[in-house]
Amino acid sequence: MILRCGTRTLDLSYPNVMGILNVTPDSFSDGGRFNSLDTGLQQAEQMLKDGAHIIDVGGESTRPGAEPVSVQEELDRVIPIVEKIASNLDVAISVDTSTPQVIEAAAKAGAHMLNDVRALQREGALEAAAETDLPVCLMHMQGQPESMQNNPNYQQVADDVYVFLAQRIQKCSQAGIDVGRLLVDPGFGFGKTLEHNLKLLAKLDNLKTLGVPVLVGMSRKSMIGAILQDVDSQGVSLDRPVDQRIDGSVAAAVIAASKGAHIVRVHDVKQTADAMKVVAAVKQVDRNN
């Protein structure tokens, strides 16, 4: 499966690694670490060396409880680093945004792909994305980041997410976006409990019938921390800290890729890229037999 991304192409016949580059002061895992042009470019370069196929640049934190940022602030954070990466590195650039003005500016700055946690539901986003002719990842989220974890509720989470994504694919098609440009993301951790997340992962291969590539992001998220809970000296269960979730995150990425995910979005690129090579080797044997 080949995904055309502006001037580039991605071969999705094996699992691709998308490295996360947050140029924000408040992201849950690495907020503030890479929000200068120099540190952002250095991190992108390191992720490329470590095996990333795509660098995903985000200028608005969407962690639970996060507050929205202004359009101008998001533009000021995102566009300079997209231009910097595009002019210095040979790598596909994705921009993690829901904002029409950022979508338009990012495409002009050299981005190759759009990644929207709101599935192009902000006013004007659908039209802006259609104009760019770039591929777009549509993610499921129940509610908004500032309140999505208050009380997430579903009839059947895997079915509900599937129906939502199918509807958004249809909306995009009606707006003139070719289905061959679309990807979907079930939105692990976005308005979901641990049980919801685990059910989605267990049934991830159901998304294959949507007929578009699947992207997943579970890296270092609270679901991993909850699964890896430790018990302290007083017998209290504590979620594993963010910086100690690498092994669990890689395990989740392996499961997702084995169930058909084409792109895994991660913080820990080297470890995940190594794991994806193993998954790809097994998949190749399966295809040949």
Key features of this structure:
single chain; 289 residues; alpha/beta; 9 helices; two-stranded antiparallel sheet; TIM Barrel; eight-stranded parallel sheet
Blueprint of the fold:
Layout (H helix, E strand, L loop, with lengths): L1 E4 L2 E4 L4 E7 L14 H14 L3 E5 L12 H18 L3 E5 L3 H10 L3 E4 L8 H8 L3 E4 L17 H18 L7 E4 L8 H9 L12 E2 L5 H6 L2 E2 L5 E2 L7 H13 L4 E4 L2 H20 L1
Parallel strand pairs: 3-4, 3-12, 4-5, 5-6, 6-7, 7-8, 9-12
Antiparallel strand pairs: 1-2, 10-11
CATH topology: TIM Barrel
CATH second-level architecture: Alpha-Beta Barrel
Note the overall shape: globular
Major sheet summary line: 8 strands, parallel
> What's the N-to-C terminus distance?
19 Å
Which structural class best describes the helix and strand composition? alpha/beta
So how many helices? 9
Radius of gyration: 18 Å
Total beta strand runs = 12
User: pLDDT below 50 for ≥5 consecutive residues: which ranges?
Assistant: none
Instruction: Give the averaged pLDDT, no decimals.
Output: 92
Please give the share of residues in helix.
Answer: 40-55%
CATH superfamily: Dihydropteroate synthase-like
Question: What is the H/E string?
Answer: EEEHEHEHEHEHEHEHEEHEH
Classify the beta-strand content into a percent band.
15-25%
